[in-house]
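STRUCTURE:
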């Protein structure tokens, strides 16, 4: 399978590999920007209103100007790029918004430069795996619980190091701790666990990214008859859980089979996958 041939830079479709950034770009230098990772297919972007709302909220926080040209055109440009790249049934899409050139102390540019990338997503819209994940905790860094912690920021160093830590140890993912030593999220997903018949997930105040699938499940689980609660989660509480699963926009629900030698089942996670995720 060949890779994508084109990307979209500020509205222009260009060949992949063409130089589009300079060494003075603030997004490159300082991680000054945001990104969204999305699942597109069948002429739509799954959970697009949630992605778009999160993106605009983050852009306001980072002092970008969300121009009408950007807000009205971006969804269509995403779908058009997927078609140009011939991704087939479903596409993994990354939209990166970033600042232009400048030093750390110059006048802040509010123009939202952006890049759209797409590639085939063979897993399709469900992403369920019967095998389950093996995870652990990355303890060498801690995430702050401040106003910017919930953003999908281009400053992704902590998560990048946690992912490398997991890869070196043959793990499927790694959980990240917050500044209080509690669990925030994983390198690419939000965390849920089940005890009895109640679902738990860390609140945004614990430093986790404001995931769109997390938000969707917090709304959908009660409608489906499940009890869900946002509360801080310690590693010890996770050790006593009946089930653990991770969520993100691409993969939906991924159940955890093993955490630090503890083995979990997936009965309720599988039920939620069937009742909610597959019907999105």
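SEQUENCE:
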């Amino acid at each position: 399978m060949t890779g994508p041939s084109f990307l979209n830079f500020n509205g222009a479709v260009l060949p992949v590999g063409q130089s589009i950034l300079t060494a003075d770009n603030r997004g490159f230098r300082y991680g000054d920007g945001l990104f969204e990772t999305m699942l597109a297919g069948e002429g739509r972007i799954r959970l697009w209103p949630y992605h778009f709302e999160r993106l605009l909220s983050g852009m306001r926080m980072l002092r970008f100007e969300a121009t009408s040209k950007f807000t009205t055109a971006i969804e269509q440009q995403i779908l058009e790029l997927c078609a140009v790249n011939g991704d087939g049934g479903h596409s993994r899409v990354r939209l990166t918004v970033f600042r232009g050139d400048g030093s750390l102390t110059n006048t802040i540019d509010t123009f939202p430069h952006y890049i759209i990338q797409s590639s085939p997503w063979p897993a399709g819209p469900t992403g369920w795996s019967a095998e389950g994940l093996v995870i652990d905790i990355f303890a060498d860094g801690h995430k702050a619980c401040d106003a910017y912690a919930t953003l999908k920021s281009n400053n992704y160093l902590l998560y990048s190091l946690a992912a490398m830590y997991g890869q070196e140890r043959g793990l499927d993912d790694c959980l990240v701790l917050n500044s209080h030593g509690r669990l925030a999220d994983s390198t690419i997903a939000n965390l849920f666990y089940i005890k009895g018949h109640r679902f738990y997930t860390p609140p945004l105040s614990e430093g986790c990214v404001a995931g769109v699938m997390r938000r969707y499940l917090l709304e959908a689980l009660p409608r489906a008859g499940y009890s869900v609660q946002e509360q801080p989660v310690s590693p010890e509480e996770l050790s006593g859980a009946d089930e653990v699963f991770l969520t993100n926009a691409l993969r939906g629900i991924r159940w955890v089979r093993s955490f630090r030698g503890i083995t979990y089942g997936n009965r309720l996670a599988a039920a939620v996958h069937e009742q909610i995720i597959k019907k999105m």
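REMARK: The two ends are 28 Å apart (CA to CA).
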